[in-house]
């Protein structure tokens, strides 16, 4: 039982160490090994007589504080409350993570779950919970997600999604801590069994991933589905024609690329041109009548003049009824040379506090367009194929990409406007570029489908269905055009078929852990607790 006044800083220092290590995995410098070790200090900390809630809170708040540091320079030009908003986000994340470590300890204490399993499952349940809170859902960073840059290690995501990488890396880290602890207590003899378990936990999935990747490498990239011209338009390049699209000048930013693209076609072939999110800051059709707006005519004229389809970020609007205001959407359009403006894909995942209308949208005093969330997750038809267009934050959500693939998308495209990462200002070139690219790679691997991302200042890149591809095809902040092939979809994965079942199971386990108590032994200590 606990001894009154038995307080030591060691568990909190260990939890803080885990927070720093996990935060480092959210950077381009984390590498493939650190995700497997980052949770080992937290596992040691849970063996002390310290509140598990506080340890989980500290770990998550530090980890995401490091990973999300870019929120301060990114929000500073939109609201004076940038720092309070950043701290509030960390507090909310920490609270849910604290519940996760509490549930993990309860499952270990009362149900005798091994700590590698209970902590891995409950922490994954915390991440699932954060991604499903209505109005303020948060799916930006997941433990183990950085393995997306190492396709052999990330191959398991095609089975149960990126959540499997979280469970795997956390379980390995906690198992490593157990092996070290056993070595301290029982020498080599006590370590052997746990070390073998750790080798199996790490080695078997890596071996299977290697076999799987070799099979996919045989699917030649020499026969791409199509070739895409990706326009990284640079900072401050979008033109604003007003929400009604009444000014054709809103599409001038598109027209200025006609000659460079024509010159490019003389040396290389491409099937479609893709521009960033909200590159035309106006509607392409009238929300009330559905008629093509002046900005829409200019955009369609571009496709006609160039002779290839155009995938373009712009605004879309809808008049719900006579008693309501017009609903505005952050959208993507696939435009052909036929002069028509077909239905758009409307962004379904809005950034909490910065997008959206109502109680949550536009919170914290940020200057904001009152966007509504799109309700239909359907692919667009472009260049004779179906493309699953996602707009920026959409790509953080595995279910959005999965829904597009299940609806028939043959490739995925992420349109992003990262103008708020102004590369001309100090501190604005941040890890957010790399983190956003991580999500794109995960979505490609989960569904074994080709994916491209086009951003206003970076990263602009292409990922093969087996998860490979350069970090960026253009330097961040540069203006230019890059052409890349989109690989043919490799397979219908288990994740595409069943979705994020693992996340839901982990959430149920977390809830069970929070409410688990022994009816007979109310004072049993946590196994391994120091008294």
Please explain how this structure is put together:
With about 525 residues, the protein is an alpha/beta fold. It is built from 16 helices and 13 strands. Strands 1, 2, 3, 4, 5, 6, 7 and 13 form an 8-stranded mixed sheet that branches. α12 links the parallel β4 (about 280-285) and β5 (about 310-320). The longest helix has about 55 residues, at about 165-215. Mean pLDDT is about 85; it is low at about 1-5, about 355-370 and about 520-530.
Helices, by number, come to: 16
N-to-C order of helices and strands: HHHHHHHHHEEHHEEHEEEEEHEHEEEHH
Biggest sheet overview:
8 strands, mixed
Shape: globular
The Rg value, from CA coordinates, equals 25 Å
Query: Considering DSSP H and I runs of 4 or more, what fraction of the residues is helical?
Result: 40-55%
Instruction: Tally the beta strands.
Output: 13
Seen as an oligomer or otherwise, the chain set is single chain
Q: Separation of termini? A: 7 Å
* Unreliable residue stretches: 1-5, 357-368, 521-531
- Which structural class is indicated by helix and strand composition? alpha/beta
Strand content: 5-15%
The overall average pLDDT, rounded, is 86
């Amino acid at each position: 039982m606990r001894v009154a006044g038995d307080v030591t800083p060691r568990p909190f220092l260990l939890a803080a160490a885990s927070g720093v290590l996990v935060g480092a995995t959210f950077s381009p410098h984390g590498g493939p090994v650190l995700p497997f070790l980052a949770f080992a200090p937290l596992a040691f900390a849970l063996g002390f007589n310290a509140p598990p809630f506080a340890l989980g809170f500290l770990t998550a708040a530090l980890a995401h504080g490091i990973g999300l540091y870019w929120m301060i320079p990114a929000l500073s030009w939109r609201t004076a409350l940038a720092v309070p908003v950043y701290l509030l986000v960390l507090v909310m994340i920490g609270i849910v993570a604290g519940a996760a470590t509490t549930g993990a300890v309860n499952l270990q204490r009362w149900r005798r779950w091994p700590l590698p399993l209970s902590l891995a499952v409950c922490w994954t349940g915390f991440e699932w919970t954060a991604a499903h809170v209505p109005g303020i859902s948060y799916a930006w960073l997941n433990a183990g997600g950085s393995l997306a840059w190492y396709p052999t290690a990330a191959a398991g995501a095609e089975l149960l999604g990126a959540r499997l990488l979280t469970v795997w890396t956390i379980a390995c880290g906690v198992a490593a801590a157990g092996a070290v602890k056993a070595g301290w207590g029982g020498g080599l003899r006590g370590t052997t069994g746990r070390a073998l378990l750790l080798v199996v936990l790490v080695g078997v999935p890596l071996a299977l991933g290697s076999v799987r990747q070799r099979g996919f490498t045989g699917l030649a990239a020499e026969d791409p589905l199509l070739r895409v011209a990706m326009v990284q338009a640079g900072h401050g390049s979008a033109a604003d024609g007003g929400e009604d699209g009444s000014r054709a000048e809103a599409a001038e930013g598109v027209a200025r690329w006609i000659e460079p693209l024509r010159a490019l076609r003389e040396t290389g072939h491409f099937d479609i041109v893709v521009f960033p999110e909200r590159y035309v800051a106006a509607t392409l059709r009238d929300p009330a009548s559905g008629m093509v707006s002046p900005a829409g005519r200019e955009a369609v004229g571009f496709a006609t003049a160039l002779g290839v389809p155009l995938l373009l970020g712009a605004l879309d609007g809808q008049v719900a009824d006579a008693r309501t205001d017009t609903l505005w959407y952050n959208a993507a359009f696939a435009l052909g040379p036929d002069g028509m403006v077909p239905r758009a894909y409307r962004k379904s995942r809005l950034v909490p506090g910065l997008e959206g209308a109502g109680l949550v949208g536009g919170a914290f005093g940020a200057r904001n367009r009152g966007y509504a969330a799109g309700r239909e997750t359907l692919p667009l038809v472009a260049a004779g194929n179906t493309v699953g267009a996602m707009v920026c934050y959409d790509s953080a959500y595995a279910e959005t990409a999965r829904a597009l693939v299940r609806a028939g998308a043959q490739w995925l495209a992420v349109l992003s406007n990262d103008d708020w990462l102004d590369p001309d200002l100090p501190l604005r070139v941040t890890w957010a570029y790399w983190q956003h690219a991580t999500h794109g790679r995960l979505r490609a691997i989960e569904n074994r489908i080709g994916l491209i991302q086009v951003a206003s200042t970076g990263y602009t890149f292409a990922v093969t269905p087996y998860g490979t591809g350069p970090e960026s095809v253009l330097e961040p902040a540069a203006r230019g055009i890059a052409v890349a092939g989109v690989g043919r979809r490799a397979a219908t994965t288990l994740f595409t078929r069943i979705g994020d079942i693992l996340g839901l199971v982990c959430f149920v386990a977390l809830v069970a852990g929070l409410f688990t108590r022994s009816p007979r032994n109310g004072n049993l200590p946590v196994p391994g607790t120091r008294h």
